[in-house]
Structure formats: C-alpha cells, structure tokens
Amino acid sequence: MAFRRILKYPDNELRQRSIPVSEDDDVKDLVGDLFDTLNVSGGVGLSAPQIGVHKRVIFVSCEQFTGEMINPIIKETNGTSKLPEGCLSFPGVSEDIERSDDVVVEYKKLSGEKVTEKFTGFPAQIVQHEVDHLNGVLMIDSLSRLKRSKVLKRVQKVKKGVYDMLNNSLEKTPKRIKSESHLSKKEVKKRKSRRKQNRR
Length: 200
Ligand code: CO
Description:
The chain is built from four helices and five strands; from the N terminus they run αβββββααα. It has helices at 28-41, 122-134, 145-172, 185-199, and strands at 45-47, 57-61, 66-85, 95-108, 114-120. The radius of gyration is 24 Å and the shape is elongated. The two termini are 42 Å apart. It binds cobalt (II) ion.
C-alpha cells in the first residue's frame, strides 16, 4: 500500500472509461493505495482512474460511510440538488453541481460480499461524483463553457504556484560554477588534473 500521484485535469487519462473488475482480479493493493492516497490528500472520495488505474473501483470516506466499492452501479436516483463540489483532480476548484439527493448503489466489497445500499445527501453526492470518474466524466462537464474556462485557469494557476514553489527551493541550492574563464590557463590545467586524480 502506498500513496499514489493523483492525475490532474486536463490529463487525458481522466477521460478514459474504466473496465469492470473480474472475479479473478485481485484489487486488494489497489484498494489499499486508494485508501492511503485519500487519507494523505484529505479528500472524501477517490476513484482508481485518478491514480492511473482504469478499473471500476472507488473509495468513499465520509462520516456516514467509509469503504471501497468495486463495480458500483447506480440503480435508482431520487430528487436533485445543486451543491458545491470539489475534486482532487481539480485542486483549488469548487463549483455548484447538480446531483441526485438519493441513490441506490449495487457494489461489491473487497471481501466479495455483494451489497445493495441506499445513500442520502453527502455520501450520495460522493458516489455519483466517483462513478462519473469511472466513465471518464468530470465535474466540469455540466458547467457552461465560460465557467469551464475559468476552472481551467484556476487549475493552471494552482499548478503554476506549485512549480514556483519548487523553482524557489531549487534556486536556494548552490549552483556549481561551470565557467572557469576567470582563471589563468595554468590554474585551469591544475584543477583539471586534480579532478582526474580525485576520480580514481
Ligand atoms: Co473527483
């Protein structure tokens, strides 16, 4: 089990449709990785394709429900609400998304047990969001073009922020002086032979 890098929008892999987990496919490690990655990121839900594995596995972690769902299928939906939503693949983004209030979900646990369960409110919202990931559907797909371009700018800004942070820390490490042009020819020769000796 390990922390895995979470793919960020607009990575094309997030658009790929995931395949069902077959009876003989052992997804124990995958579920462990989803659990670990979710814990470290502090999210409430994560899907396998977000860590680059295109299998129909999600992990939900909220007050009302914590656990894995293998091959989840939404069988029934009821009512709708527009509520703010975030996604670990869209750092820094929160948008109002329309979701069903209740869902009945059929899924399998790691133990092999088949479950049909009804979720209401927050866990229902999470399940719908994560099942969308398995179909390559992202939260921004229901937004207007204008809002989508704003989201893209926001994600790029957050990304740039991370890169700037990295660059700043790189700049602090002393650079090796490559140029020796300020030295006399004799001094350059001396340094060269010294380096050669050191190599042995
Ligand atoms: Co998401």
